[in-house]
């Protein structure tokens, strides 16, 4: 018996490429159900996707993260294949990605992009990907080689235990952090990455989306590693207080006087703020530990891939 496979294609103004994308996945995954989720397209994406044989649904709240949230909530399957509707990802790699999930009982396999076409994967995006991947590895201990890849295969227990919070293109970062935080079994496979078909236009903005992703990583780090996050702030405040206090202490040792009361008051305030940050980190660390246990239990409520569905 074949596992139930759902191919999920979030789309926004992709009438040029969506038919080719649907046909590609239909050819290599004949038993899969292909869903196209339209996100307020102003072109003929819906009509073209329906004509290509996909099941078309809509999400009115703009942003890829909002579309992914809707897809994960609506679709019931054993294996989920997520890609973009712009024909840049290699549909022929999908069976290998799925086989890796099933054979090794993984919860996610990422299609790491490999391309020789500069038009397909701009240098600015490659540099940003490497930089953000390095940051993520430092923050969470391990990472993927391509955290921004939109080509991923998920198990059911990943999809149904993932509380999607992002609204835009930072969704891939949130997905990666969720897997790393719960220490899920994951993998990567290199897959070809192609340029968009002629007439198809990218929706990405290197600087705007890069800033949003960096902000997402910082926010997730604050949420998932509060002791370290607030500890760093406390350390900086305490270090500044010590620098300001040293001249006061030396003067007091020589004259037994404190001539600069405003500085002394500032030092006291900085130490108080540092202490408050330490206590905030300790309290939030306990809260995060409890949240992580709940998320882990939600994850364990579903069967592993290949264990009878």
Keywords:
309 residues; alpha/beta; seven-stranded mixed beta sheet; 7 strands; elongated
Chain-wise SSE layout:
Blueprint: E1 5-11, H1 18-28, E2 33-38, H2 45-51, E3 55-58, H3 64-74, E4 79-82, H4 94-104, E5 108-114, H5 123-140, E6 152-155, H6 156-159, H7 171-181, E7 186-192, H8 206-224, H9 226-255, H10 261-300
Parallel strand pairs: 1-2, 1-4, 2-3, 5-7
Antiparallel strand pairs: 4-6, 5-6
Helix pairs in contact: 5-8, 7-8, 8-9, 9-10
Shape: elongated
SS strand fraction:
5-15%
The mean pLDDT is 87
The percentage helix is 40-55%
Give unreliable regions as ranges: none
Radius of gyration using CA atoms only: 24 Å
Q: Give the H and E element order.
A: EHEHEHEHEHEHHEHHH
Sheet with most strands: strand arrangement: 3-2-1-4-6-5-7
How many β strands by DSSP? 7
Contiguous helical run count: 10
Our measurement of the CA-to-CA distance between the termini, rounded to an integer number of angstroms, reads 10 Å
**What profile does the largest beta sheet have?**
7 strands, mixed
Structural class: alpha/beta
What does this protein look like?
The mean pLDDT is 87. The chain has a 7-stranded mixed β-sheet, with helices on both faces. The protein is built from 10 helices and 7 strands. Helix content is 52%, strand content 13%. The longest helix is centred in the C-terminal third of the chain and has 40 residues, at 261-300. It is elongated.
Provide a compact summary of the structure.
The protein is α/β, with parallel strands linked by helices.
């Amino acid at each position: 018996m074949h596992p139930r496979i759902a191919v999920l294609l979030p789309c926004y103004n992709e009438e040029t490429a969506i038919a080719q994308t649907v046909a590609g996945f239909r050819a290599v995954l004949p038993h899969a159900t292909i869903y196209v989720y339209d996100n307020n397209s102003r072109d003929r994406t819906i009509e073209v996707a329906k004509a290509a044989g996909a099941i078309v649904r809509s999400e009115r709240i703009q942003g890829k993260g909002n579309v992914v949230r809707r897809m994960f909530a609506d679709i019931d399957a054993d294996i989920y294949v997520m890609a973009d509707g712009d024909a840049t990802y290699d549909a022929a790699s999908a069976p290998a990605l799925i086989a890796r999930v099933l054979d090794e009982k993984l919860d996610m396999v990422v299609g790491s992009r490999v391309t020789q076409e500069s038009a397909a994967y701009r240098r600015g995006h490659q540099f940003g990907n490497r930089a953000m991947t390095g940051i993520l590895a430092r923050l969470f201990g391990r990472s993927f080689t391509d955290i921004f890849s939109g080509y991923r295969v998920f198990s059911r227990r990943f999809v149904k235990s993932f509380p999607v919070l992002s609204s835009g293109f930072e969704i891939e970062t949130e997905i990666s952090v969720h897997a790393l935080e719960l220490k899920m079994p994951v993998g990567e496979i290199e897959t070809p990455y192609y340029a968009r078909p002629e007439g198809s236009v990218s929706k990405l903005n290197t600087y705007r989306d890069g800033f949003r992703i960096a902000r997402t990583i910082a926010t997730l780090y604050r949420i998932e590693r509060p002791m370290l996050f607030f500890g760093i702030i406390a350390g900086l405040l305490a270090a500044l207080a010590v620098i300001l206090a040293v001249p006061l202490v030396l003067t007091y040792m020589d004259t037994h006087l404190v001539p600069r009361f405003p500085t002394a008051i500032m030092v006291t305030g900085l130490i108080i703020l540092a202490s408050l940050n330490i206590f905030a980190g300790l309290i939030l660390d306990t809260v995060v530990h409890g949240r992580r246990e709940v998320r882990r239990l939600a994850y364990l409520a579903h069967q592993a891939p290949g264990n009878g569905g």
